[in-house]
Amino acid sequence: MPIVAVLERLGAEGLRDIMTTFRDAVKAHQEGINRLNVYPVPDGDTGTNMARTLDAVVGEVEAAADDLGSTCKAIAHGSLMGARGNSGVILSQILRGFVGVLERMGATGDLTGERVAEAFEAASASAYKAVLKPIEGTILTVTKKASIGARRAADRGGRLVDVLREARSAGREALADTPNQLAVLKEAGVV
Fold first, then answer.
1. Spatial separation of the C-alpha atoms in residues 8 and 107, rounded to whole Å
2. Domain of 131: which CATH number?
3. I want to staple 12 with a disulfide (CB 3.0 to 4.6 A). Which of 45, 60, 68, 182 is the partner?
4. Which residues span the domain enclosing 41?
């Protein structure tokens, strides 16, 4: 029986891989995300704007030095300079909040479950601050709930993989609940 290592720590290379995979996933689902776009205006460009923002991030990350601090700076800079539309700006703030915590670890630190929980909390706070009138039932809510899940796992002494799984689970639950928080989503039959 093969033994698979459990994710315990994540360094610069893994973070770069995550950003590339994130970008590729958004691009693969870009049109579907565009169809979900009914709030604040149904202009059908949320997926496109997020993909373009992440293209800029990946471009910066690929050119960055091979250490955590440089990778975090590249993510923050790429997301700021490449942000497109409301969704791109909010995504930029989520990423900047997240990597801001990680960058303070120093150029050679590895990411632990506790540090990633702190990063999720900073991501949520940064996103809420970026929006003049935050509305629940949006990406803001999903990010906040993911951060609560991450914190819950970290407080139980969870490893990195546990924190990430709990954040993902809480985020998915929050996403499924968005139509109950924002009537326009329920009326359109989308999340």
1. 19
2. 1.25.40
3. 68
4. 12-188
CA–CA gap between residue 61 and residue 15 (Å, rounded): 9
> Residue 38 domain-assigned?
yes
Amino acid identity for residue 93 in this structure:
Q
pTM exceeding the 0.90 threshold for the entire prediction: yes
Residue 7 lies in a domain: no
* Position 173 pLDDT exceeds 80: yes
Does any domain span residue 170?
A: yes
What is the pLDDT, as a whole number, of residue 6?
65
How far, in Å, CA of 173 to CA of 98, rounded? Answer: 21
125 Cβ contact partners less than 8 Å away, ≥ 6 residues apart: 97
> How many domains does the chain contain in total?
1
User: Which of 102, 63, 65, 103 minimizes the C-alpha distance to 81?
Assistant: 63
10: phi then psi, degrees, rounded to nearest 5 = -140, 125
- The overall average pLDDT reported for the chain is 92
Whether 2 maps to a domain, the answer reads no
Q: How do residues 38-52 score in pLDDT, each as one tens digit?
A: 988 888 999 999 999
